[in-house]
Amino acid sequence: MVALVDTGLLGDAPALPERVELQLRERILAGDLRPGTFLRPDRLAVELGVSPTPVREALQALRADDMVRALPRRGFVVAPLDRADVVDLFDVQARITGELAARAAGALDAEGLAGLRARAAEVDALIEAGEPGDLAQAERRFHAALNRASGARKLAWLVGRAAHYLPPRFYTDRRAWRTATVAAHRTLLDALAAGDPDTARAAMEGHVLDGRDLLVAHLEAVGFWDET
Amino acid sequence: MVALVDTGLLGDAPALPERVELQLRERILAGDLRPGTFLRPDRLAVELGVSPTPVREALQALRADDMVRALPRRGFVVAPLDRADVVDLFDVQARITGELAARAAGALDAEGLAGLRARAAEVDALIEAGEPGDLAQAERRFHAALNRASGARKLAWLVGRAAHYLPPRFYTDRRAWRTATVAAHRTLLDALAAGDPDTARAAMEGHVLDGRDLLVAHLEAVGFWDET
DNA sequence: CCGCGACAAATCCCATAGGATATGGTCGCC
DNA sequence: GGCGACCATATCCTATGGGATTTGTCGCGG
Fold first, then answer.
1. Residue A12: its pLDDT value, please?
2. How do residues A65-113 score in pLDDT, each as one tens digit?
3. Which of A13, A41, B147, B189 lies at a CB distance of 3.0 to 4.6 Å from B156, suitable for a disulfide?
């Protein structure tokens, strides 16, 4: 337990179930726990060094996300997920995220735009410097701020779920993604400043679909959908 | 505990956390627990007659759905949800469900079409007879079968989430919904039989948006978004 | 009168133990 | 070899307890 607790920053650190949930997501997306794998709560508790209670809570959260499925009295299984599923999901994500960008283009005031520029600048700076951990976080904050600026609270949450399928730091290492991201952000910000919803939408959709392609390649590489 | 356990059919009955989750969803959508309401796990456990453990697991599942939000060390709150949120969510639902119908139009074989017709006939029969409980279940099965027929597993799950926002039996009582549903299903089945994706998509989108309007009216009626 | 700090009570969060129940495997039997 | 009954194992839930943190109250000083 010490290992897990110590990694979490204090303050308003998420509780244990949420951290266990994150750990399990990472292990699934890393190809460590592939679809069809049986998950035994007690076993996982021992592996993670916590009691069964928070593990079961985390598994319930993952079940609500259809990341795992519950087999009453038999445990849990990692939910099936193939290439077509990922493509479908990210098509939806791209559409919604584009819609949010378009709305933001019409709703942003000067202050909000300045905030977005600042966050984008942080991303650019980290790309220049090469700090992978903070870069993912900065990119996340940029998108979160943009989605929030759209004013569509629930849709913003919905697209935030896409992050559940993004293994940590897997795209920040790709040179292609870095250069594409800088360009996409600039196009996006220009469109937002100009109040041009269509361009903002198109730029954002392209940005998300780039991420999708990278994710598919990653899952391919770790043998995610090799038959069990 | 007896009350909850006895209501569940044996066999592959969902486990207790899932049933508690359902109960909480119903109470939220009934306007009993409005957005902003604090939820105390221990209190809920006493109210529902179960121990705190499955209640906490249910709350974690609801958190993953953004139905409630966790305040570390302080409990949980019912997540904010206003009219615009519901409209946005169901716009997305309508789009995706329409897409699934369009795909099904191209993928259905004779056997699958016959199965869908059978399920639609069940719905029609129950509408004639007037069995509200079974009707909701039959309607659910019809849509589930159609979504499954599209072949898009993950999108089918995603739209299945819309049911989380549908209070049980709230639309089966509406005469307007019944007549509209019979017509919508027929149009849908004809389009599927003819292999006409565009008509299928349009019919399905309209069907979902009808449900959305009913839901908004329901939430209105129970004072869901009256300020706290 | 109002803000503010300390103490007390309540509550959450997690661990642990234990019992009821269902599953899967194994052995004996036909 | 196929089939049905026992048995070990694991899940699921209950109950309990303790550590940690938040909230509410009280008293004090400004």
1. 64
2. 999 999 999 999 999 999 999 999 999 999 999 999 999 999 999 999 9
3. B147
Q: What is the CA radius of gyration of chain A?
A: 19
Cα(B30)–Cα(B24) distance, integer angstroms: 10
Fold of A83-221: Four Helix Bundle (Hemerythrin (Met), subunit A) (1.20.120)
CA→C1' distance for B80 and D16 (Å): 35
Tokens encoding B171: 């639309």
Model confidence at A1, pLDDT cuts 50, 70, 90, reads very low
State the DSSP string of A35-46.
TT-EE-HHHHHH
E-assigned strands of chain A? 38-39, 68-71, 75-78
* Contact assignment for A84 to B60 by CB distance below 8 Å: no
Per domain, the residue ranges of chain A are 2-78, 83-221
CA distances to B43, B60, B62, B118 from B55, in Å: 10, 9, 11, 38
C-alpha torsion sign, points B210, B215, B220, B225: negative
Q: Which nucleotide is nearest to B52 (CA to C1')?
A: D14
Contact B15 A72 (CB under 8 A): yes
| Amino acid sitting at position B128 | E
Distance B12 CA to D12 C1' (A): 14
Dump pLDDT digits (tens) for A140-161: 999 999 999 999 999 999 999 9
Q: Are A72 and B12 in contact (CB < 8 Å)?
A: yes
Q: Which residues of A touch B9 (CB under 8 A)?
A: none
CA distances in angstroms from B38 to A153, B34, B35, B80, listed in the order given: 20, 9, 9, 12
The mean pLDDT value for A200-222 works out to 95
Q: Which fold has domain A2-78?
A: Arc Repressor Mutant, subunit A (1.10.10)
Q: Extract the runs of DSSP E, i.e. beta strands, from chain B.
A: 38-39, 68-71, 75-78
Length of chain B: 228
How many pairs of residues across A and B have Cβ atoms under 8 Å apart?
A: 88
* Residue listed under structure tokens 């996300």: A65
Average pLDDT for residues A16-43, to the nearest whole number? 94
CA of A73: nearest nucleotide by C1' is: D11
Residue B161 neighbours by CB distance under 10 Å: 15
Q: For nucleic chain C, give residues with Cβ below 7 angstroms from it.
A: A 1, 15-17, 50-54, 57, 73-74; B 10, 40-43, 52-53, 56, 70-75
Q: Which residues contact B99 (CB under 8 A, 6 or more apart)?
A: B150, B152, B155, B201
Q: Looking at residue A227, what is its pLDDT?
A: 65
CA atoms of A129 and A184, how far apart (whole Å): 19
How far B12 CA lies from chain A's nearest CA (Å)? 7
